[in-house]
Design goal:
By secondary structure, this protein is mainly beta. Strands 1-56-55-54 form a four-stranded antiparallel beta sheet, with no helix packed on it. The protein has a four-stranded antiparallel beta sheet with strand order 2-3-4-5, with no helix packed on it. Strands 6-7-8-9 form a four-stranded antiparallel beta sheet, with no helix packed on it. The chain starts with a helix and ends with a strand.
Amino acid sequence: MKNLLKIILFCVLFWNSASGQPNWNIEEMGEKAYWDIPTEFIIEGTLLYISAGKAGLRIVEVSDAANPQEIGVYDTPGEARDLALNNDYVYIAQSEYGVAIIDVSNPYQPIIAECIDNIGTCLSVDVSQNYLYAVANSDLFSFDVTQPENPLQIGQMTTPGFPIEYIYIHNNVGYGVFSGMFDDKYMYVVDISNPANMYRASLIPGSNYPYDIAFATGYGYLLGQINHLKIYDMADPLHPALISNIVHTGEGKSIAVEDNYAYIAAFYGGLLVMNVTDPQNPVTAASCGSAEYAVLDEITGDAVMTADRYFGLKSISVANPANPQPLGELRKVAQINDVCIAGDYAFAGEEYRGLMIFNIEDTANPIEISTCGLPVYDNNARGICIKDSLVYLASGNYGLRIIDVTDVDNPEEIAAMENLGFALDVEAADDYVFVASGYDGIFCIDAANPEYLILTDAYNTLGYAEKIYCSGDIVYVADGSCGTAVLDASDAANLELITYIDTPSYTAALARTGDLLFVLDRVRLIIYHAADLLNPIELSAFDLTGSYGQDLKIRDNYVIIAQNPNSLRVIEVSNPAMPREVGYYFNPGAGRGLAALEEEIVLADYCYLGIYDYSNCLSSVVVNNANPADDYEKPRASPNPFNASTLISFSLKENARVNIGVYNSSGQEIAKLFAGSMTQGQHEVVWNAESGSRHLSSGIYFCQMSMEYLNTNESSLQGVKIILLK
């Protein structure tokens, strides 16, 4: 029992956690912001309000439909899923953060008015006559928003057995849809004439994943995601009567109706135009393929605004509905997955466009200067690295792409190798390029002549090869749940496994410097002494509270970590046995990859490219809740790790009786270093691990020091972790 108590004590002494401050020692310098995939938008006058996922609220001026311009932004705390507009306020369903109420009376500077955060995960909102209706955790909530800064909940309706995903309000009736799996698809009609006492009026079977509803001239148009449009007679709004059910092409995402025409944003069919003059017999009038992958549409004047899944905003003239014509565009959607730096330029792997190049000379104002990608909508660009003037891009299904960036304004693809599985990461080492490809493992490619690539070998690792790191002839692979694979690449034609380093959870990224191997195991940073790859010694594990780690980079004695979502962390590791956090920042997006300079971090942050100053971390004093007296007494070991002997130093605030011992990981005392009285001030003792008859192996040991102060009768217990390497 005594040994067990000592082990528990050690766990308490060496446990680490982040401080509770929102941001610490890291400052944002600048960013280039893009949109996530738009999920909903509303046109009011000449302004288009867009819920853009992780990019929050975006406001676009569309008075000139051929030249739309973004004028306002508000980054919501959560992912913007849906929105509604009432007077000068936008209501945004922001997932687990509830509902954000945003004042847009000045569309150039939208500001938060209030947040409703006590209803659970909110997926959909709508507003009617100063009442807000919100769908959260499958229930329907109603709020009086006569004063938007002070919303008052007045009603809640549960939907047992029939959950609602999206709500649409029309003429004091709520229409909820659920587009779930198999046969659970329907339209849920709710009487909201008394918002404090909402009830289900009818339940109408749906089909093919109902996705959107529009209302016009006494009819309701229910769009099914899979090729169906149902039209209802709304004479009795509580009991709509089905009058037609037609099949359309493409995958329906959104519908708008005006002047006897229905405009359907069809993911695979572009913009479809249907003549609904006779709602019982609608007919297809036209289509516009330039709106391919459209997910939203809305009408303004003679133009339809569509949101493109891979692009941004497109405007299409429907002055003649039978012959729609492209007008203009605003290319804003981006998902930045990784980044590397050379000189004044950042090179980013972007999901849809391939390579994006930014001038970051002015860190407060990064400027996109060029792109280079395949002529497809989805380039799958993931990991990226640069060597000399060549960028190597892991491009998912499109394998390895090599791009000459000698002229950054006009990058040019000079070579490619496909059929490499789903390429996720890439590293260039000497004349070879190594590609990590998920379940297909690792590929080694001779790139001595970049325009003539030769596949030399492949190694199928046991797990999911997500990240790769090269050090000399050794290749380290972050292999997911199987840990870290270590490969010998001295013979490029014969990759050989050296060993697997098991980790507790999921190895997401790694890096090596000297004899130290740093492994990002999702929610912890593990540091190994890896001079002997067959017998790596774990020196420490630092807990990363919160989100999952995605990438890490080493800069001198600092490990910089990107987490998804919303965390950028800096860990000081000059003593690898006792890493300490010295800074963090809650970034707006979802950290995917990063590059580190001497004092700046460039972060691939999903729909942001962020630049951060971490210079304050380089001389940081750790702030925590420890007793200052405890820190005064705390012993320190130097060197640590050590080979034969190490010096234990500590301070006493007053005269004390002191006991100092060394224990193994089982809690057994294996050396007594001191027992007796000591005076106030600085002291040192030496532990020689080679003295005595006991043979000690390499590993982790603990020095424990107990103190009983003679004047105050106070007692204290302190400890330090020590690593012995032989």
